[in-house]
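Exam revision sheet. Question 4 asks you to relate a sequence to its structure. Input first:
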Amino acid sequence: MPFDREVSGAVDSHLSCERKDFESKRTFKPRELGMNEHGASLVFHITFYEIYIHGSEGSNDLWKVGKLYNDPKKRWFRQCACTVLARSSLKLSRFPNEVASRHKHDHWTILHLTPEGFGKPDRLVGHMNLAVLSIVTTSLDKVANRWSELVDFLRVLLEGDNSLLDPVRHDHLLFDNEDFSRSREYFWAINCLAEFEASISANIEQWEEFRRYLKPIEDLEQGRANLPSVSRDNLLKNLLERSDAYCARLRRYQRFFQDKRTATVALRDGLFNASSVMESRAATRLGENIKLLTFVSVFFLPLTFCTVRSPITKSPK
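Answer key, structure tokens:
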């Protein structure tokens, strides 16, 4: 695929926040003068949600923006993406004895698309895969911080003050008001938690795919690094450890979304069951009142009829 089409596809995926699997490929094309061009490309693309402080009603943001439910600070949140497109080109000589010059012309280009506030990546050194790993490591750190803000908001929204130690306040969780504000809050939270869980699961899967992509390449391309082997190995180890730590944070947030969704569904079902019991009792009480009114009407109706038919008149003197 031509590089311009790869760039166009990466930009489209980034702007649409479309979830995609990790992509990597290599090409081997015949060139003039007996030269071959060995190219490799990869796309690391993740979508996530973040609290957006610049949101406003009717804003022209390219990504979807919405209000946080019952947020005292009146903040917004949005879906956004981080995309890394890398492409390398390595010219190989047709003469096998020119080993020293076989990896001489190694060139690569990286396109890094992020939301505002991500900052610049660290200085990129080494071969393409090491440079991409450096960018991915920094991006995972930023993405984990964005998820952390949403986790804090949902923890306050769904937990608030601990009501387990106050039985009276805890019992109030079973009742709703006339506006159904508690039911609407649970409904919004359940849908958001399901979407957040799916999004963060895709983030984790993207890193795991990239991790598997790196392992065989690192073994085959030891001689292609521009750094000394010891320094390169230390840098690679450091980046992998940091990325694994950030991914472990994402897994914790994923479990939080799963647990909170299960707990919120239980609260919603308890609220619905309690409301159904209360409505059933009210209907039964209303039926008893109508039954009593019917008995009273049956008793007094004949007397009223007799009074109308046989009025008591005063006899003349």
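Marking note for examiners. The radius of gyration is 34 Å.
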